Amino acid sequence: MAAVTSRRLAASSLVEVIVAAAILVLILGMGLGVCARLALTGPNRMRVQSQLVLRQVAAETIRTRAWRTQTTIVDEFEVEQEVLAYGNLPHLLELRLTARVGEKTMAQFQQLVYAHPDVTP
């Protein structure tokens, strides 16, 4: 009969496996905590979308030269538009836009605009 040889296999002990699992759980827990914090404090979809809507309303107001104070509904946002004379400069207007959902202000946008001398707010 063939001789039976016994070799010792290199393997990890139970303590080493438990320590490795505990380290892995800690790293995953910290990673999930960072992801959760980013989801709560980072820019959310509504804020980014409201900023985009305000920029589009500003561009349209400048293109059409609709220098009036008004409130409109764009998508799900209530957009308040104010057009004010800027200081003592007769041809400079300040365009202020605010996007709201209900009572919550989502974004604000301000821009100075040159208006033709025969246009007044």
Which keywords apply here?
4 strands, transmembrane, Type II secretion system protein, transmembrane helix, membrane
Description:
The protein has helices spanning 14-41, 45-64; strands spanning 70-74, 77-85, 92-101, 104-114. The longest helix is centred in the N-terminal third of the chain and has 28 residues, at 14-41. A 4-stranded antiparallel beta sheet has the order 1-2-3-4, with helices on one face. With 121 residues, the chain is an alpha+beta fold. The mean pLDDT is 86. 40% of the residues lie in helices and 29% in strands. It is rod-shaped and about 110 Å long.
Helices and strands, with pairings:
Layout: H1 14-41, H2 45-64, E1 70-74, E2 77-85, E3 92-101, E4 104-114
Antiparallel strand pairs: 1-2, 2-3, 3-4
**Oligomer classification:** single chain
Kindly name the structural category. alpha+beta
Going across the major beta sheet, what is the strand order?
Answer: 1-2-3-4
Q: What general outline do the C-alpha atoms trace?
A: rod-shaped
Largest sheet: 4 strands, antiparallel
What order do the SSEs take from the amino end to the carboxyl end, as H and E?
HHEEEE
Give the tally of β-strands. 4
Q: Low-confidence segments, ≥5 residues, pLDDT <50?
A: none
Helix content: 25-40%
Mean pLDDT: 86
Strand content: 25-35%
Rg for CA atoms: 31 Å
Count helical runs. Answer: 2
The N- to C-terminal Cα distance equals 108 Å
